[in-house]
Amino acid sequence: MANLRFEAVEEAFKKRPLEVNTPKERPGDFYAKYVFNRAKMYKYLPVDVYQKLVDVIDNGTRLDRSIADAVAQGMKKWAEEHGATHYTHWFQPLTEGTAEKHDAFVEHDGKGGMMEEFSGKLLVQQEPDASSFPNGGIRNTFEARGYSAWDPTSPVFIIDDTLCIPTIFISYTGEALDYKAPLLKALHAVNVAATKVCHYFYPEVRQVHSNLGWEQEYFLVDEDLYFARPDLMLTGRTLMGHDSAKNQQMDDHYFGTIPERVQAFMKDLEIQALELGIPCKTRHNEVAPGQFELAPIFEECNLAVDHNMLLMSLMKKIAHKHSFRVLLHEKPFDGINGSGKHNNWSLCTDNGILLHAAGKTPADNLRFVVFIVETLMAVYRHNGLLKASVMSATNDHRLGANEAPPAIISSFLGRQISDLLDHIEKADKDNLFNLSGKTGMQLDIPEIPELFIDNTDRNRTSPFAFTGNRFEFRAVGSEANCAAAMIVLNTAVAEALTDFAERVDTLTAKGEEQTSAIIDILREDIKACKPIRFDGNGYSDEWKEEAARRGLDCEPSCPVCFDRYLDRESIRMFEQMNVMSHNELEARNEVKWETYTKKIQIEARVMGDLAMNHIIPVATHYQSQLAKNVQNMVDIFGDVEGKQLSERNIKIIREIAERTNIIESGVEELVNARKNANKIGSQREKAVAYHDTVAPKMEAIRYQIDKLELVVSDELWTLPKYRELLFIR
Ligand code: ADP
Ligand code: MG
């Protein structure tokens, strides 16, 4: 009997690293080769058009439709020089990944021929017939179509023969159907709020933007082995598979030598990413075998999100070229680390002041403390919502599953910052702050050395850690669109800063000196947000109890976590910051619950199929072989001695019978649980039922299958084993 598994293993062993042609130029020269960035805008656009466009990008002024045609002309000319024949609006619907629909530049020329055309109208707005994108009921299919609109702040780029135009995707009534539209609004909100607070310290600041530096973790699996695993193909993770005898115990993979085939993949990926303007910087092995990481230099948040989306699709394409499959799932393998996407986040002014970094003067340091504390206030007030923003059916396996990070949001500051906040909170105000005549104010805030983060002090278990000049949100899933987390974080910080400024202004209106008012409010907030500060071990059971006492959100169920989007405080925050309406929030939650259900539903089906059509047949086949052997032994040695000599085989025959029986009834229960859940009308209740009654049944079946893997003859087993998936590359 041909066994796909052994064929796949044989194929995988034969593979050699692919030759990757390194460009002759230095990275600086081919960087952003396929991006219509400023240098190209300057070259391909008339000067007045260039200036207007730059004004739109830098200052958020409204796009003057009259320049759209000229911009489109310039873009088209540049794109054609790079061989592009098509264009597409590129957007981020509420599914994973991106969407695009390619149109050729060609139009009728009116004389029976064709001409290539690309007008401003086509650049600025389109109506993709996209009725099948999730919309949570906002868009009634036959009454209103969604449309996509150009986002000039993220430059267009070329992939293969197509000019890709980053766009938002919204309904005709203006509701967001994507991630980018609310993200841009959240970034605007935090810009306005932070700029106002900056003016207490630096009146010259005109704008504040949000930075994002993501670190993308992923697994690579040989493509032939991947194709022999229907669960990987259909769900992105292994639904079964016994631990490999060796996995990550030795810590020998982390930062080890990168395997050659992987190295070739990484090199290829980096070149193409650089050409698309993604500033890749770091690459290394991760903790688990077969796991790797790539991180670029941080960028403005909206651009960084686009670049991450682009990188993920690039990874899939290039992995295939190298005969790998990239697994972006947060937990492709049980028993070893999962993958995340740390989101390094900070705020920065237009004149380059990093607001989460300490400075040299007392005023700088007061500003630093204000931004740290108000970020903590945001995270404290909306800790449940922040968790909801990173929750998904797939990330559910990682959060709270005894690996980084836990399913309770808290913030690690490190000893020095903690001491500093305690000092400001407790010190006598007159000591802390006194006005000393003309020389201005003096703050008794201890000097903060530039490199004050002690690296040994880094708490790897913290989901929201301060790391020197930024916060690192580590609970984001490897597969997720970073925008979901960035929308909530930036909006919450916008709210906290707005609230802070209002209270400061109320005090100054009553005649209090400004710095004194700032310190009063700061002290109030340092006290208020204390429950979110936690420097201990996030995995411990004591922390779970302590966190509950502190009133932090400890809900472990993914579909229930989504409720946080519809809490009164969340709706108020999103509406006041003008990021999303109640209606949008409700619609998006419908999508979240539906997506959750579908994912578990697919897994349950695949589990049922594999159990019945792979596992049980293979196990019983082996069982028959053993039974035949026992019979032979009885024929030779007689009943008593024959059976005695076959003791081990009889034991296995029994074990297989017992386990396959449990599996079979487990699958039946699984089907029934699904049937019952499917009858539920409400998306929320259905998702909860899938979480509570369907998902756990798969665990029980898996347990039996993994035990069978240990007793059934290796030769018969059809699914590539963990050791093969993880170590052959
Ligand atoms: P780690 O030790 O966590 O792996 P790295 O030095 O690799 O940290 O940096 C992780 C990411 O953080 C990179 O993308 C980096 O550009 C980004 N980063 C550094 N400083 C900031 C900042 N001030 N704001 C946002 N991101 C930053
Ligand atoms: Mg990191």
UniProtKB/TrEMBL annotation:
InterPro entries: Gln-synt_C, Gln_synt_N, Gln_synth/guanido_kin_cat_dom, Gln_synth_cat_dom, Gln_synth_gly_rich_site, GS_Type-3, GSIII_N. It is an enzyme of class 6 (ligase). Keywords: Ligase. Residues 179-615 form the GS catalytic domain. Residues 85-174 form the GS beta-grasp domain. SUPFAM superfamilies: Glutamine synthetase/guanido kinase (SSF55931). Its EC number is 6.3.1.2. The keyword Ligase applies. The keyword Ligase applies. One of its GO terms (biological process) is glutamine biosynthetic process. One of its GO terms (molecular function) is glutamine synthetase activity. Signal peptide: none annotated. Transmembrane segments: none annotated. PANTHER family: GLUTAMINE SYNTHETASE, TYPE-3 GLUTAMINE SYNTHETASE. Belongs to the glutamine synthetase family. This is Glutamate--ammonia ligase, catalytic domain protein. The gene is glnA.
